Amino acid sequence: GEDVEQSLFLSVREGDSSVINCTYTDSSSTYLYWYKQEPGAGLQLLTYIFSNMDMKQDQRLTVLLNKKDKHLSLRIADTQTGDSAIYFCAEDSGGYNKLIFGAGTRLAVHP
Amino acid sequence: DADVTQTPRNRITKTGKRIMLECSQTKGHDRMYWYRQDPGLGLRLIYYSFDVKDINKGEISDGYSVSRQAQAKFSLSLESAIPNQTALYFCATSSIDGYTFGSGTRLTVV
Questions:
Q1: pLDDT tens digits for A98-107?
Q2: Any chain A CB within 8 A of the CB of B94?
């Protein structure tokens, strides 16, 4: 079945880059997403990548996709305290059928 | 107004009570979903519906039921609530333009 895995915790120093990793099992995934959840809040779509792309950049965010290894990463450049949140990786098999989420990576940014 | 509205935002209920969580959308999307979020487990799919006549179980449907009253409305029921159903519940819709999530309903079963 479909499965998405992420490490649960990442701690970085303010100003450094953060890299959050995700692996997935469904090779038919069409879109892969990154969502952000701040404490007590709902889900905010950060970015997504189509499965035929290797990389997508959006300001401080860079998404890398290795389709052969089914590995997705999110790089946040110049990490700020406001980036502290839980980051969820999600895959969409077959195109807007349903999202399968990872457990979420809690990013802690310290001075 | 929000595109996807969940009511109530917060609810405390007793074990054994029946409770309904409601979701309505103004996106005009056919596809709607219910997820629950637990710490360390992410969001897990409870039920989803691709149109008014199509209802499908997700990975954790036991103890839950749903009703798709109209294209815009998708409600989730707990027939007899139990404490391990304490969680944050999200409704979502989707189309080819992507997914839209509600703000969540925080349910506590005591």
A1: 899 999 999 9
A2: yes
